Amino acid sequence: MAKAKDSQAWQTVKLGDVTRQIKHKVSDPVSEDITHYLPGGGIRNDSFLISEWQPINDGVMGPAFHMCFLPGHTLYKSRVPHGVGVADRKGICANTTYIIEANPEQLLPELLPFILITNEFRQFEKENNRGSTNLFINYNQITKYIFSLPPVDEQRRIADLLWAADDSITEYQSTLDKLHTTTTSFLETQIANGLKNGWRQTLFDELLTETQYGISKKSGLQREGTVPILGIPNVVAGNIDLSKLAWVEVSESEFEKYRLNTGDILIVRTNGNPNYVGRCVALKDIPENSVYASYLIRLRVLEDRANPSFIEAILNSRHMRRTLMNEIRSSAGNYNLNTQGIRKQKIPLPPLSGQDSTVKKLNEFNMSKGQLESHIENQRKLKTDLLNTLLSN
Questions:
Q1: CATH architecture entry for 200-349
Q2: Which CATH architecture has domain 8-150?
Q3: What is the pLDDT of residue 181?
């Protein structure tokens, strides 16, 4: 159990008094043995791990990427959504990512990242963001953040506890990432081996009883006199996310036309991001009496020939995603997929018993993923509770 804090020994400080910004610019990364740069998307708001590195010679790196950081430096993403990372290698980032170094005589470097994700600092961010559409916070504003800082010995005890919690999350996340890779590899191997061993390349049109665009009506959060409507935010590849459910008022005839049933497949037909277009889900547990929006297409298959969950898996596989990308068209900033482009696809199709066997194995993978995701969520809550308890004076 953690010892009680000696709050009288804590000091009130400004972040700028115990840290400094590193401004080491490089014009020739190769001459400084730098091989990779850090894009803004590589810093997340739920982990200190850098999730994305890009080689400096990828032909995409822009001129703003010239700030050099070293292993152990704290990296702060100044654009919303803000995020904090800890460098595990030497690299470069854009000038919109602030490289921050703690003065170890006053603030342990190991504690600095945690200070930047406390509830108090998150609130400070909200109050000090600038801009209209692309919100950001200036570095000189960050330096004005005032907080309570314990003595260095107490900082070390707190940092050890917080990093232990963070390491637990990292281990679970690493296992989850490996399971995602295993699931993908399993399906791709099934498809490749199946095509070698006699799976028919069946025209999708032969398996469909219906392709129907969704209803085009204004939806909202009002529930009275309305029904739930599923849209793009609810369709995650292979899953339904009901955290942002909307509601819509429909007539009896509209309800009958657009009503969703278990086994229906919803596929995203249009979006500003081409990676969203074509992702789909076979409906299992859905809100009662729900309909779907015009940005989606409902597919219904002959269930005596095709297992909807197997078709979902095939459509979300790399094998089919590559094929569907050839059918996506760009118009007025959106990417679109129509029913004709879907119907003419050839689906690698084993007998129904083989489809059921594949779905059973995928369900086992998904059950394990769900358990790991639950562990990760619990560990994140524990870390947050520890964080805001141990760093609140």
A1: Alpha-Beta Complex (3.90)
A2: Alpha-Beta Complex (3.90)
A3: 93
